[in-house]
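Lab notebook page, bench 4
Experiment: in silico fold of construct C2
Operator: M.H.
Input chain length: 317 residues
Purpose: comparison with the prior construct
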Amino acid sequence: MPNRIGPNELVEERHFLVKRVERRVTRNGDEFYVLELSDSNGTIEARIWSNALANCTFEEGKIIEVTGRSQEYRGVVSLIIDDCKIVNSEEAEDFRVKVPTLVFDIETVGKNFEELDKKEQKYLIENLEKNEPDKKKAEARTGLYPIFGTVCSIGGYNPDSEKGVVLIVSKKELKSSRENFEYRTFSNEKDLLNAFWEIAKKYQLFVSYNGESFDFPYLIIRSGINRVRVPIEIKRFGDNQIDLLNKLRHNNHGFKLEFLCRAFGVEDPKKEGIDGERVDKLYKKGRYQEIADYSARDVVATSELYKIWKEYMSGKY
């Protein structure tokens, strides 16, 4: 069972986080409560019948110590609570279900405009970048489109273990600027993509900033072009990804990551003068170390924002 409680087990003085409380009444008019409980192993539904209410104290968002027994109905295990009390000795965070989570971000580099043939140039300027009045800026944005660009770097970070990795296509070995990060270099994009999907297979939840519209579609298209198999299904608006750009949107405006970091007191990953628009130029100059360090800072900042959103803004305990 996901909560590691089997049917017909005696539960004695076990601690759970109360995620939800619902009061109900039987047909006979007897009051009872349904609780959703969790610990690091999973969630389980529990009931407190009227004959046990006098023995119980509980509150949503609190840790309770439970004594009771489990039962199974139609393959689902639930708890019948005989006695419970609120305890204050432990942090609620320790009782949340730990979903393997990867915070990630990609950096891309595009072909030089002159490398495109006439038809491609026209398509970029007159279709993809038709709203950009500055032709020079439009010509420099090939990296935004996976048909003209490639993935040059991917940062990944586990917010629970606080360990990260940067995967980068580089002509030289790089040394990580952070103790909790590993830098891995590759000679080509295909090997980088293969390495990323091998890592991704170990996770169930993916956190990004604009990943829903940009990072994941870009990765998937580039994987197809490179004939790299995508091993997990990533659905737009699916429940296995959280895009903070959408979660922190206001009045239909998405904010730049750097300004959200400033507002929330998170270290700005762009404070050293590097951002996604500069990566293309830095990469073509062979400044791989700066890009790798930026990738690491970016996913750490995104992770910090995610923790704040999850703790205070998600509406979930």
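Observations: Residues 10-95 form a domain with the OB fold (Dihydrolipoamide Acetyltransferase, E2P) fold (CATH 2.40.50.140). The chain has two domains: 10-95, 101-313.
Next step: discuss at group meeting.
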